[in-house]
Amino acid sequence: MTTSQPARGLAGLEDAGVQRILGRSAVYELLALGITYPTEASVQRLVDLAEDLEGHDILKAYGLAPRLAAIRETVEAVEVPELQLEHNRLFLGQVLCSPHETEYERDTFSKAAQLADIAGFYNAWGLQTSESRRTMPDFVGTELEFLAMVTRREAYAALRGWANRRKVARESADAFMQTHLGRWVNAFAADLRGVVADDAAGRFYAALARAIEQFVVMDVAVAGVTPAMLTLRIPRPEDDEPMVCMDDPNPMLDDDTFGVMDEAEPDSEVDLPAFPSFE
Questions:
Q1: Which of 72, 93, 114, 158 has the fewest Cβ atoms within 10 Å of its own Cβ atom?
Q2: Do the beta carbons of residue 140 and residue 270 sit within 8 Å?
Q3: Could you give the number of structural domains in the chain?
Q4: Residue 175: inside a domain, yes or no?
Q5: How many CA atoms lie within 13 A of 232 on its CB side?
Q6: Phi/psi class of residue 275: alpha, beta or left (left: φ > 0; alpha: ψ in -120 to 50)?
Q7: Which residue, 136, 170, 130, is CA-closest to 150?
Q8: CA distances from 218 to 86, 93, 143, 157, 189 (A)
Q9: Residues 90-135: pLDDT tens digits?
Q10: C-alpha to C-alpha distance for 109 and 116, rounded to whole angstroms
Q11: pTM for this entry
Q12: Is 87 a member of any domain?
């Protein structure tokens, strides 16, 4: 049974708690946009989100204002084709920096179990990764987008006065941070910062890496969860056995979408954007 309270609708958007949740969701979405293969539409959406978040309480609480300012400054100083080239150089071919959680897992035999567990989180929300875009469930952009979606659902439940559903969404996000994204984001960010190019596109990805690390680490701390950290760095191209990409991190995107999943938001009196990376 779902515990219900009087629905607050649009008026509830002014509530500080709801604003905090929506702020977290917007930051997760911005970071997912940044790490996903860039298009004109995705970059414009990233810039729009950065503008919308200026002065938001979540940036003050998490100390993120300088990080998002750096993202906006660097992305506005580079052309999308340059970002695409750097994205491919980092994440394709020999894979200078793996964007996949299971590539940071020390236990090779646990990779399949980890992938299944990640898919289980998605399935619990009626979601699955898009086969047409050929991206693995453990892609960092997919994990960030999943948390953007779950926190958006938490805000929606709060607005409708659905206490139990809000609790479920919050617990799902906390569990996902503890068992997945929170375990490897430090290693990923460190790897990414170490291999970015010394040019405009590289400066964007360096700024993005710092923002991803700081935000997720802060969100983990606020949630009070304690992930078992992964620190294994992937082999470099100069190593004996260079890493080979397991999938294509460049999803085939429509101009008005990002990510690798599709899902439909339930009908509501509050406009909450859908997340097109699940289907």
A1: 93
A2: no
A3: 1
A4: yes
A5: 13
A6: beta
A7: 170
A8: 28, 32, 16, 23, 14
A9: 999 889 999 999 999 888 788 899 999 999 999 999 887 877 667 8
A10: 13
A11: 0.83
A12: yes
In a domain? residue 232: no
**Which two tokens mark 225?**
């969860």
Q: Is residue 148 part of a domain?
A: yes
Q: In the structure encoding, which two tokens stand for residue 85, read together?
A: 């080239």
* Tokens standing for residue 129: 């990764």
Residue 104, domain extent: 10-223
Q: How far apart are CA 74 and CA 55, in angstroms?
A: 19
Mean pLDDT over all residues of the chain? Answer: 83
Helical H segments across the chain, by residue range: 16-35, 40-53, 57-62, 65-75, 80-91, 111-124, 140-160, 163-176, 182-195, 200-223
Which residue's entry shows tokens 């906390």? 174
Q: Which two tokens stand for residue 100?
A: 């996949």
CATH code of the domain containing 130: 1.10.3480
**What's the length of the chain?**
279
